[in-house]
UniProtKB/TrEMBL annotation:
InterPro entries named in the record: DNA_pol3_alpha_NTPase_dom, DNA_pol3_finger, DnaE2/DnaE/PolC, DNAPol_HHH, PHP_dom, Pol/His_phosphatase_N, Pol/histidinol_Pase-like
PANTHER family the UniProt entry points to: DNA POLYMERASE III SUBUNIT ALPHA
E.C. no: 2.7.7.7
Name the record gives this protein: DNA polymerase III subunit alpha
Amino acid sequence: MFLNCHSFHSLRYGTLSVEELVLQAHSLGIKELVLTDINTITAIYDFKKECEKVGIKPIAGIEVRKDNRLLYIAIAKEFSGIGEVNKVLTDYNCNGSELSEVAPVFENVFVVYPIDNIPLKLKENEFIGVQEEQLNLLIRPELNRLVSKMVVLHPITFNTKKEYNLHRILRAIDNNTLLSKLSEQDICGKSEYFKSEDLIIEAFQRYPEIIKNTKKLLHACSFEFDFEKVKNKQYYTKSKESDVKLLRRLAYLGLKKRYGKDHEIAKIRVEKELKVIDELNFCSYFLITWDIVRYSNRMGFMHVGRGSGANSIVSYCIGITDICPLELDLYFERFLNLNRKSPPDFDIDWSWQNRDTILEYIFNRYGKDHVAFCGTNVEFKYKSRFREVGKAFGLPKDELDDLTKKPMEVHETNSVVQTIHKYVRLIERFPNQRSMHACGILISEEPITNYSTLEMPPKGFPIVQFDMNVAEDIKLEKFDILSQRGLGTIKDTVELIKKTRGIDVDIRDTRISKDEEKANEYLAIGRTIGCFYIESPAMRGLLRRLKCDNYRILVAASSIIRPGVAQSGMMREYIFRHNHPNQFEYFHSVFEENLKETYGIMVYQEDVIKIAQYFGGLSLADGDILRRAMSGKGRSIKKLQEVKANFFKKCREKGHSEALTIEAFRQIESFAGYSFCKAHSASYAVESYQSLYLKVYYPLEFMVSVINNQGGFYRTEVYIHEAKMSGGNVQVPCVNSSEFQTTLKDKIIFLGLMLLEGLETRIAHGIVDEREKNGDYKSLQDFIKRIPIGIETIQTLIFIGAFRFTGKQKNELLVEARVLLVNFKPENRGLMLIEEPVQEFKLPELKRENFEDAFDEIELIGFPVSCSPFDLLQTKYRGSVFVNDLLKFHKKQVKMLAYLIARKHVPTKKGEMYFGTWIDANGDYFDTAHFPDSLKQYGFQGGGCYLLLGIVEVDYHFPTITIHKMAKMPMIPDPRYSYDKEKQYDIHRQIKEDVSMTSRQPYPQIHEIELPRFTFDKK
């Protein structure tokens, strides 16, 4: 009887999750259920699984609406019917086609019209839905004669009265209106909740034909769907055989290129992998990825193949990855094994500048009917829940701001706020909108609309209506096409070096991108600001603690810096063992033989597999099952128990004592959920090393590229500081010398117009384009004549110094600009400027204070360029100790003056603490620790310079200052407002800092790690 059920995937309409919907139906003994969410199939696959768990027959459908008006309900006779409706809605969503009032001709779909939208003629598969409260309308002759084409329509939208009110709130949110202003057309009927089928039949007893039609319709429908059949594109060529043949040929061509003619070990590995790839029918997945990478190479783009795909020698040979799995002892089974049914997972990164070109190629090459982005369901976030529910109740903006900024515990306790709390809690897990997955691309064998309606988000690439978890469930696996700014930086640096120095740098040459003497020196001292993945304060500190001077240690560092790894205690233990290789014993000889590179610690996921295999006697494939069972979405108590039992059984067979086996499994259990894929770390490390090499030998080109790619851990000011430290002469923007982006000429760096916060992108590009067409600007008047621009923008350019080529003072230029633009009308631009020469004024000479320019720069780009922040302090004191000498002051108190770069919030068991990153007056970086007790009295007061007092703690070559006291140092008053005392300190509040927050659990202390430093038998 229930042909029209809504879940909460009918966005901002339904109030029931799929699980709640099915369980309610089951509790009432309902045996058939139709899910018809509004214009979406998001939940049908989960719905099928949930129904089958409790013995309900699932039927899939879609409620088709236009502008919030119900046109008809489409119910699939069989699964192919869903594809028919998907095509109609996809044309509406993506191609601008109109949704007609009458359903198109469907082959495998029943159509149910509401009683207020009955077409002139009903097709055989079309019916009219009648609700219980509409039965009295059937006395009308025009309706009574249609009873033979009627079915019971009892929509389901909510559960209880409270949820009916929730539905109304969701409708108010959707309509951006107040609850009191909702009309009847905006909301569902008050009876749209489950009741027993007996009550419904009783209500319709005068019309047995309607009940019969309804049952007949339900009986005629089915929802058969093979979850196990792979839906991805089956063949790259025309058949599996030709795919296998092509992949083999490509692998052997790459084998010769990567390893030479006679590398027997590599050849054996290639053969082994090809066999598994063939058996698992994954050839097309490899070849499609190869094809995308081949196109990228043809376009001259850089890419990084990372993730577990780098465990494969075949992917290395055909150019998907650049990590040699033999060099790093990477296990193919971590990537693919015969127990794995889902396709492999390649993560491919491109520069953020090139990714859209790659995406366009994929859509064009594989057909727009077969390619789409994976979707995501974006839930109501904490702030939006309060803001949206509060708006529905009519709260003013200031009260809404108060609710969103404070935790619930400290909100007011009045009745309105308490009511808002009630509904805020109810929508906590509700989806609010569908969006695009960050990187997941689906390429299907059949048209992708067979599985989903497509939507077109603002980005311009179509998305399916389900997320990656559903995609994986239905065996429609994604290709991860990612973007990042680090690759853009590397690419731009290489191009800039060619332009400025005429040097071609082959950044993929492993002699310079993995092991280079000077780059290794920079690594060991953490001189890595701007370098991909290794520039954060934590990473630079780790590199120094390890004295990391080679690629292999960098790979390990890239893994152990991960939050989960550090949280497991591995990072601290690894640092200890690396620095004291003679102060520990290996737990067991197997650990020494197989984990010597990581001092007996399971740093990588591959290490877990090694110990499972060599200590526990499990196969490589079973070892990977163990790893997956202990971590991520593969976690399964039942599966874990099975592999644990097998592990203990095999250990007994190998003669290990019970106590030894228990301790070994405890270590596996402790680390499996935290360890990181070695291939992933190795891929990251290569890119880190490539960027480091460029920083070492071409620092100005590198820093300019970092600035232009707007990427990195820090704000632009820090990278400009780095450029200055490397000998760059940094100049503020100039209309005759600057481009849109930052540029390098010899050692002069002209900051780009894009850095001016008050300058529109369109105007910035226009300034450059006009200059390139018609030459440099000769004067301010010439500039205004050629660029359509208002007085406010002109002032921005004048204040930043963009007209300094004229030789005139800023105040003189301002007067000139105002005269030129007085009573200005765009249509008179040419007339005014040509016929009315600027009146020459003899201005009294106005002396500009030394630091007026610096304050202009802070206001317009956020930091001073023409001087150091230290120059703007009232004090001449610069500290008693400098960074260069910190190692000499272990356990001693120091007093330093420093400029705040960044601080990171870190939770501890005693309260919040911060780690700070600073530069001293010489421009060198150092780090501080601020514990809860100190912060209570001496907290951070925003960006600027501070006087610091604390104790130096040297931890494995890396000094940190534990701060006891600190005070923000006053800057000189803003000389531009010497006449206005109140404004003299306004600009000081614009001095920036980088603040990062984390909500993770506190890291364990060294005594909590419990990793034995002795051979087990010697306990």
